[in-house]
TrEMBL record:
Keywords: Hydrolase. This is 6-phosphogluconolactonase. The gene is pgl. NCBIfam families: pgl. The keyword Transmembrane does not apply. It comes from Glutamicibacter ardleyensis. Belongs to the glucosamine/galactosamine-6-phosphate isomerase family. 6-phosphogluconolactonase subfamily. Residues 7-232 form the Glucosamine/galactosamine-6-phosphate isomerase domain.
Length: 242
């Protein structure tokens, strides 16, 4: 599915509305919702829109688990961390019942000696929160930004890849900072729904390439696929080459 909104702000608002409804549906069906959030400008704008949307009172936030698709392996209080950028938004949901123990962070360089250690800890955390001894929870919605090079999470073209379930350390990232922790593509593709959040004209070629053919190594975004749905939630300027 491709949904084209007028601009980045409309895209963020549309995704937020969709997310609130999807979380309420997941809780109604299974009593819990596992949601993977993303950094990047559109990912953070989406969280702002969720925090500000009056319909957010319709969700029982105490039943929601938040995960990150990737995180930068830097100091815990670094402005580069997705978690730091998202903190005010999680704070806004605190008053609506969000349990901080359910906001699952990938490791930072204050807590772990290496990105490998942080990735191993995140992999273990995923397994602990999964039911029936599975490798990770079944994510209801997994959101991803996409870079102009078609990277998703911290899976860059012709760079790190792994078929394992869980998280991996990424070094020499083409986009700074160099050290990161990322879910693997195999893990991303266990989600019921994967949503790709894309805005801006500079993303148009990568978006077109991702629709063209599946090539995980050259075009990571092309390999993303939810088990129930894969939704491209994009703006008009990103859609010009479709
Ligand atoms: C990173 C970024 C990156 C981002 C995409 C989309 O880890 O370096 O967070 O992965 O999510 O590049 O970002 P925008 O929405 O800002 O274009």
């Amino acid at each position: 599915q491709i949904v084209i909104h007028e601009d980045a702000n409309a895209t963020a608002q549309g995704i937020a509305a969709r997310l609130i409804t999807s979380i309420a549906d997941a809780i109604a069906a299974r009593g819990v919702a596992h949601v993977v959030v993303t950094g990047g400008s559109l990912g953070i704008a989406t969280l702002v829109a969720v925090a500000q949307n009056p319909a957010n009172i319709a969700v029982n936030w105490s039943a929601v688990h938040f995960w990150w698709g990737d995180e930068r392996f830097v100091a815990a209080d670094s402005a580069d961390r997705n978690a730091v950028q998202a903190e005010p938004l999680f704070a806004a949901l605190d008053s609506l019942g969000l349990e901080r123990a359910n906001v699952h962070m990938t490791g930072d360089s204050d807590s772990y000696a290496s990105a490998e250690d942080a990735a191993a800890a995140y992999t273990q955390l995923l397994a602990e929160e999964a039911s029936d001894g599975a490798a990770n929870p079944v994510f209801d919605v997994l959101m991803l930004g996409m870079g102009p090079d078609s990277h998703v999470a911290s899976l860059f073209p012709n760079h790190t890849r792994s078929d394992e379930l869980g998280a991996i350390a990424v070094h020499d990232s083409p986009k700074p900072p160099p050290h990161r922790v990322s879910l693997t593509m195999s893990t991303i593709n266990t989600a019921r729904e994967v949503w790709l959040l894309v805005s801006g004209a500079e993303k148009a070629p990568a978006l077109a390439a991702a629709q063209h053919e599946v090539n995980e190594l050259a075009v990571p975004a092309s390999a993303v696929q939810g088990t129930e749905a894969t939704r491209w939630l994009i703006d008009r300027s990103a859609a010009t080459l479709l």
